[in-house]
Design goal:
The protein is an alpha/beta fold. About 45% of the residues lie in helices and about 15% in strands. It is built from 19 helices and 14 strands. The termini are far apart. The relative contact order is 0.08. The structure holds uridine-5'-diphosphate-xylopyranose. The site of uridine-5'-diphosphate-xylopyranose (UDX) has 19 residues, from helix 9.
Length: about 450
């Protein structure tokens, strides 16, 4: 099967590389010639474990190509995947400008009938609109069949998720198109769910909104646990063992971030509103998350009264571990607020340190040395549960900080470990640890 993928961002690149790996001939097309030049040299343009090796292997096999020329990339393609971004507009809705442009580019260049597969997350009804748009721009005699095939990849484990996903959703208008898509995906060996196009589009939004709801739910339980003296980790464990609930996405913390949950929850609220449906539940999920991202500031102000002149070590910038992505990271809320309150901020991140100043205009120092960040600081604040931070002996805080005070937004250490290390430890949804001497 000859496949073209439009867009070499996160979703497009992973999709193209994985389809080549299972035996298809794939050409990835992007309008950015610099990106294409890098990719053609075998350099992946995103950080994703396992991607680089797989990409290079398939380039060597001549199954994976990159071009900035639509005419070249689309030549002879049986199937075209659209995998461009659908960023958030000011009102929360999805910006469809890029996907419409990608569709027009395909319509202009295809010489024969093709199947167009939309991978990008798009509001319900977009696939059908894209088809109409393309049909009004293709040369006569060319037919377009569409398929919605949403991705469920997590950053940092996208390659693993592609090959070990729980399901592949294929939404089409006819069974022949579904047959082709099922055949393309067969080597993955993942169960396929066939559905209509609108339901497929909705499955993506509903899945992300549900996972975000689970996170905000456990975060509200955590906030209540703090007031009632319970421990949210114990509560989540007890809840998660009920298979109807499940243990995934019950980790309390300072909220979800990243490129999907915040954007997709806002877009679904907006989409519902456009159809005169007030999605109150999801609005609350978003509100809880916004509050959660500010929670550590509240805890610090309760502890210190004022943060003016305090040196604060922020551990972690990325929205979660194993990615250098800062999109919607709680760090983007926390760091500007700390500097606004007069704190001096030193931030550590093992791989995203060099991204800090690109995203945050507030004055802060960025380092990839945890010791440098902690040295002589008045307290430490944990934003990302990086494995090296979790593995660190909490006594390190007592050794390096001016005062051993830790605000942990990701519950990296057990309460007994914090007690043993003799640190003052504030985490999420668990009892505070106050050493005898500072009481
Ligand atoms: C998510 C979805 O999982 C994926 O299916 C979708 O296609 C894209 O969005 P991703 O954004 O990469 O993937 O990250 P994920 O691992 O799902 O975590 C999202 C956020 O939720 C992170 O900020 C993470 O820290 C937070 N989270 C996750 C929690 O706070 N608690 C949890 O229990 C799980």
């Amino acid at each position: 099967m000859k496949i073209a993928v439009i867009g070499t961002g996160y979703v497009g690149l992973v999709t193209g590389v994985a389809l080549a790996e299972i035996g298809h001939t794939v050409t990835c097309i992007d309008v950015d010639p610099e990106k294409i030049a890098e990719l053609n040299q075998g350099i992946p343009t995103i950080y994703e474990p396992g991607l680089g090796e797989m990409m290079l292997r398939n380039q060597k096999r001549q199954r994976l190509h990159f071009t900035d020329q639509h005419r070249v990339g689309l030549d002879g393609a049986d199937v075209v995947y659209l995998a461009v971004g659908t960023p958030q507009l000011a009102d929360g809705s999805a910006n469809l400008r890029y996907i419409e442009q990608a569709a027009m580019d395909v319509a202009e260049h295809v010489q024969e009938s093709v199947i167009v597969v939309i991978k990008s997350t798009v509001p319900v009804g977009t696939n059908v609109r894209i088809k109409q748009l393309m049909l009004s721009h293709v040369r006569s005699g060319v037919t377009i069949r569409i398929a919605s095939n949403p991705e469920f990849l997590r950053e940092g484990s996208a390659i693993h998720d592609t090959f070990h996903g729980d399901r592949i959703i294929i939404g089409t208008e006819d069974q022949e198109t579904a047959n082709v898509l099922e055949e393309i995906n067969a080597p993955f060996g993942i169960p396929v769910v066939r559905t209509d196009v609108s339901s497929s589009e909705m499955i993506k939004y509903a899945s992300n909104a549900f996972l975000a709801t689970k996170i905000s739910f456990i975060n509200e339980i955590a906030n209540l646990c703090e007031k009632l003296g319970a421990d949210v980790e114990e509560v989540a464990k007890g809840m998660g063992l009920d298979h109807r609930i499940g243990s995934a996405f019950l980790k309390a913390g300072i909220g979800y971030g990243g490129s999907c949950f915040p954007k997709d929850t806002n877009a679904l609220v907006q989409l519902a509103g456009n159809h005169h449906h007030d999605f109150n539940l999801l609005k609350s999920v978003i509100e809880v998350n916004n509050h959660q991202q500010r929670l550590l500031i509240e805890k610090m102000l309760t502890r210190f009264g004022s943060l003016s002149g305090k040196k604060v070590a922020v551990l972690g910038l990325a929205f979660k571990p194993n990615t250098d992505d800062l999109r919607e990271s709680p760090a983007l809320v926390l760091i500007p607020k700390l500097t606004e309150l007069g704190a001096e901020v030193v931030c550590y991140d093992p791989i995203a340190a060099n991204q800090g100043s690109k995203w945050i205009s507030a004055p802060a120092v960025y380092t990839n040395s945890v010791a440098k960040a902690l040295n002589d600081a008045d307290c430490a604040v944990i934003v990302t549960d990086w494995p090296d931070i979790k593995r660190m002996d909490p006594q390190t805080f007592a050794r390096l900080l001016r005062e051993p005070i830790v605000f942990d937004g990701r519950n990296c250490y057990s309460i007994p470990a914090a007690r043993k290390a003799d640190i003052e430890y504030y985490s999420i949804g668990r009892p505070d640890v106050i050493p005898e001497v500072s009481k």
